[in-house]
Design goal:
Radius of gyration: 18 Å
Number of helices: 8
Largest sheet: 11 strands, antiparallel
CATH topology: HIT family, subunit A
Order of helices and strands: EHHEEEHHEEHEEHHEHEE
Number of domains: 1
Number of strands: 11
Structural class: alpha+beta
CATH architecture: 2-Layer Sandwich
Helix content: 25-40%
CATH superfamily: HIT family -  CDH-like
């Protein structure tokens, strides 16, 4: 099977109208105990549902890694051109690849072999700033739609281990759904550094406004504070978008959910719009 076929990702959750239920987020010892119970139940459910995921087995789960490692990095090293990729940054250790799904969807993929959100490598002391680099790569989305979109109409997303088809870390870079951007606008002025719960597209997410995507505010590090082991991180999905039209001025919103949360989700990809309809709005 051609490697490009593996860029087709599994369908995301059924879309629904967003509903808002916002509250401050605090984790008590009892809540943590309940989380462990839900996590165990979610893992059991995933194992029992494995037979229903057989169709995913037909996709080469290492295709993205093969494309980057065999086709893109060697081409960049030998000729200074990125091969099948859109760009390769050898110094920062990532590649940008146009996904075959959607008019404007790109992927940031490490040039190191990193399995996904659950990998301890993303939390290593000198790990690359994948989220900041992916945010800088939103320029490719703007180029694809031939418009400079406001930062709150652009998003980055990573799926949980159980809602992905590829075992190489990749961050989706694309347009946001307009209704989701509208729903998230109520968090645009949230005090930085505090989680708030909300319902988006029928699933429960917690949202934090941050003023940077690096250091202690790196989304992987923020989410790992409440999910300190790889099993817990494996269930998480993260989305990042601008808190306002200019993220440099307004900050970013980190949107997180997990399969072990009540009414949680292991994928926020459905909050993106791979058709990028916001680019066609007048």
């Amino acid at each position: 099977m051609p490697l490009k076929k593996a860029l087709i990702h599994a369908p995301t959750d059924t879309l629904a109208n967003p509903q808002s239920v916002v509250q401050s987020h605090h984790r008590s010892p009892a809540n943590r105990g309940a989380r462990h119970v839900r996590r165990a139940a979610a893992l059991l459910g995933i194992a029992l549902a494995a037979a229903g995921c057989a169709r995913l087995a037909a996709i080469d789960s290492n295709a993205l890694w093969k494309i980057v490692d065999i086709r893109c990095v060697p081409a960049e090293q030998a000729t200074g051109t990125p091969g099948q990729c859109t760009a390769v940054n050898l110094e920062k250790r990532y590649a940008i690849l146009k996904d075959i799904v959607g008019r404007s969807q790109y992927l940031l993929i490490p040039t190191d072999h990193v399995s996904g959100i659950e990998s301890p490598q993303v939390l290593a002391p000198h790990a690359p700033s994948y989220w900041a680099d992916a945010w800088a790569a939103r320029s490719y989305v703007n180029g694809a739609v031939k418009r400079t979109l406001p930062d709150n109409q652009l998003g980055l997303e990573i799926n949980s281990q159980f809602r992905r088809t590829q075992n190489q870390l990749h961050i989706h870079i694309d347009c946001m759904r307009a209704d989701i951007s509208d729903a998230l606008a109520r968090h645009a002025k949230d005090a930085p550094g505090t989680w708030h719960w909300d319902t988006l597209d029928g699933d429960r997410y917690r949202i934090m406004r941050v003023t940077a995507l690096t250091g202690a505010s790196d989304p992987f590090r923020l989410v790992s504070l409440d999910n300190p082991d790889s099993d817990a991180m494996a269930m998480q999905t993260i989305l990042v978008t601008g808190a306002g039209a200019s993220a440099e001025k307004d900050g970013w919103l980190v949107v997180n959910s997990g399969l072990d949360a009540d009414n949680g989700s292991g994928s926020a990809e459905g909050l993106l719009d791979h058709a990028c309809r916001v680019a066609d709005a007048s």
